[in-house]
Amino acid sequence: MIPGSNKDHPSFIRSFGYALEGFVTAVRTERNIKVMLALGIAAVVVGCVLKIDLLSWCLVALCFGLVIFAELVNTAIEAIVDLATQEYHPLAKRAKDIAAASVYTLSITAAIVGIIVFARALGLIA
């Protein structure tokens, strides 16, 4: 497809199909996305058990979505780097390491938010 052209551009619905296909592929092939999905599901279960308030649900959902988003972007960056070179290259390593660090940073932030949300729900903090 030529950039800026509508010829052969997938329909809006077909675009969702491609996105779903990408998500399923990532879940099937990437261990870390499976781990993050499991942790997100666990957070939802704990939230249900503790009956967290609406704002807390928003925080949990936002953190969950952002971490999965970061994992998907990291996976895409790693695939692009692998496509560009199969040989070791310092810049390829740098790109992959920085992409992974972004997921790590966001995951730590989400964990801190989760600790605060659940500690508040348990009455450990005001």
UniProtKB/TrEMBL annotation:
Belongs to the bacterial diacylglycerol kinase family. It holds the Pfam family DAGK_prokar. It is found in: Cell membrane. It comes from Collinsella ihumii. The chain crosses the membrane at residues 33-50, 57-81, 101-122. It comes from the Bacteria. Its EC number is 2.7.1.-. This is Diacylglycerol kinase family protein. GO terms for molecular function: kinase activity. It is an enzyme of class 2 (transferase). Its main location: membrane. It is a multi-pass membrane protein. The keyword Nucleotide-binding applies. InterPro entries: DAGK (IPR000829), DAGK_sf (IPR036945), UDPK (IPR033717). Keywords: ATP-binding, Cell membrane, Kinase, Lipid biosynthesis, Lipid metabolism, Membrane, Nucleotide-binding, Phospholipid biosynthesis, Phospholipid metabolism, Transferase, Transmembrane, Transmembrane helix.
